[in-house]
Amino acid sequence: MFYTKQTLKHFRNPHNYGEIKNPDGEGEAGNIICGDLMNLYLKVKKTKNGVEIIDAVKFKTYGCAAAIATSSVITDLVKGKTVDQALKIGKKDIIDTLNGLPPIKIHCSILAIDALGEAIYQYLFKNNRPIPLSLQKTHERIEIGKKEIKERYAKWLSISKK
């Protein structure tokens, strides 16, 4: 398995790493198989023209080089975009920005999209805004995954808290 120079660059020096206190939206996505976990935080502000844009975005990721690199890239791709523009970003955009990912690591780009989708979902929900049907379905899928993880690892989680 080989990573591109761009992937290694984002892994070694990730952009926008960290947490935003009191974010307007916070998204979490994980993969039960590989164990990667991504948290993405956003702040939205109105421009002078009254257009809402993603003004600040940060992430915290526990995972492999590809998970960290895709998290870094998604933050670069959405900063300064409207929510609608951000929702149009897909795994291909991330993979192209990294000049490719090994096939076994493509799921990391999907996790990054899911974390972004969850952050936007939370932002729209908090602000009583309409949530696109596709985003609702993604949210439901992610919630089912979180429930499965909790059920599968409930015993381990209770042991680790002691």
From TrEMBL:
The species this protein was found in: Candidatus Roizmanbacteria bacterium CG_4_8_14_3_um_filter_36_10
Transmembrane regions listed in the UniProt entry: none
Ranges of residues in domain NIF system FeS cluster assembly NifU N-terminal: 3-128
Swiss-Prot/TrEMBL GO biological process terms: iron-sulfur cluster assembly
InterPro entries tied to this protein: NIF_FeS_clus_asmbl_NifU_N
Superkingdom classification of source: Bacteria
Signal peptide residue numbers: none
Protein name listed in UniProt: Iron-sulfur cluster assembly scaffold protein
Family annotation (Pfam families): NifU_N (PF01592)
GO molecular function terms attached to this record: iron ion binding; iron-sulfur cluster binding
Database matches in CDD domains: IscU_like (cd06664)
